[in-house]
Amino acid sequence: MADKIIVAYSGGLDTSVMVKWLSLKYDGEIIAVCGDLGQKDELCGLEEKALKTGASKFILKDLKYEFITEYVWKALKAGALYEGTYPMACAIGRPLLAKMLTEIAQEEGADIIAHGCTGKGNDQVRFEVGIQTLAPDIKIEAPLRTWEFKSREEEMEYALMHNIPVKAKKDSPYSIDENLWGIAVECGVLEDATIPPPEDAFQITVNPKKAPGESEVISIHFEKGVPVWVNGIHFDPVTLVSELNKIGGRNGIGRMDLIENRVVGIKSREIYEAPAAVILHNAHHELEKLILDKETFRYKQDVSNKVANLIYDGLWFSPLFNSLMAFVDSTQENITGEIVLELYKGNITILSRNSEFSLYNKELATYTSEDTFDHKASEGFIKIYGLPYKTMSLVNNKIKVTA
Ligand code: ARG
Description:
Layout: E1 4-8, H1 13-26, E2 29-36, H2 46-53, E3 57-62, H3 64-78, H4 89-108, E4 112-114, H5 123-134, E5 139-141, H6 143-146, H7 152-161, E6 175-179, E7 182-186, E8 216-223, E9 226-230, E10 233-234, H8 237-250, E11 255-261, E12 267-273, H9 275-291, H10 294-312, H11 319-331, E13 337-344, E14 347-354, H12 362-365, H13 377-385, H14 387-396
Parallel strand pairs: 1-2, 1-4, 2-3, 4-5
Antiparallel strand pairs: 6-7, 7-12, 8-9, 8-13, 9-10, 11-12, 13-14
Helix pairs in contact: 1-7, 3-4, 4-5, 8-9, 10-11
The protein binds arginine.
């Protein structure tokens, strides 16, 4: 029996050539599959292209709602920023795509899942670890790691030879990955880490220097760690993120130029734009500062870092990720309230924070006559609290105290 192969298809040169190449290698049926995570124009004409290229079927799944509610919100609640900064649009999207691929493979009775990731990136790890975990019996093909083509030109030649439709317009000089949570841009001149990114590397944000001279104030209301209202208007999750991308983008918010440590050990330089992610992480973190007790807040910082590493490294579907998320969820019980932010030429300023669960107590904090804090209690506290160090110092300095 001929093989049935599910191809993670984007319509670009690599996956187009892949469809043909696989159909010849396996003499099998190809089902091209694409998940819509909000990557906009890339999806136009995809079905026609896939069928023309040799796929017998094309499946497009709208995953936008699931992406935001089941993946992005988890990362937001966890405060997951890789190496302290990158909100991980790409890394959060991959496990959902892996899940979609395995579900379709099971529905269609396919034996193989193929993807178009290269042999030196993170995405091959995320796809394959995800697929292996969810469907351990399925075979994975990664033609870009094994096929004979050594350059884009050779792939183009193959495409022409096999009548594979390739874009007439000139390709972008960059490799771009986009979804609702952000855009990643690499390759081309960006590979030279000594020079700043040219303006054309940015797709959805204005240069902060060219952003409006008037600031824009927005309020975000969270319920149990999840944003639900912007400026007093209730938005569904997908629209909320899209709106914040627009608002942030026009104020130059969310640009990043990072050197990062990839899973395979290479350091890479990547440009990111993630206006909504940067605004929401800022606001969410601010709300946690107001609401979480000291020890939980401090402990959660370590958890945020660990969760970010797990997501980046492709371990979304792992017991440790689930356990840490159970902790994260329990910390979000009271993360309900409103943050007002001012956006101005790439900067975010917090103007106000408010929550019925706020642990900020003005009567304890104030230096005025309204003060209710028991100053005298500090004396005994510090005596006991500092006792180990005082004892140590007395011993080390051979000082004898009798009282
Ligand atoms: N470095 C990012 C990550 O590993 C994005 C990878 C894809 N980037 C791209 N420009 N195609 O999550």
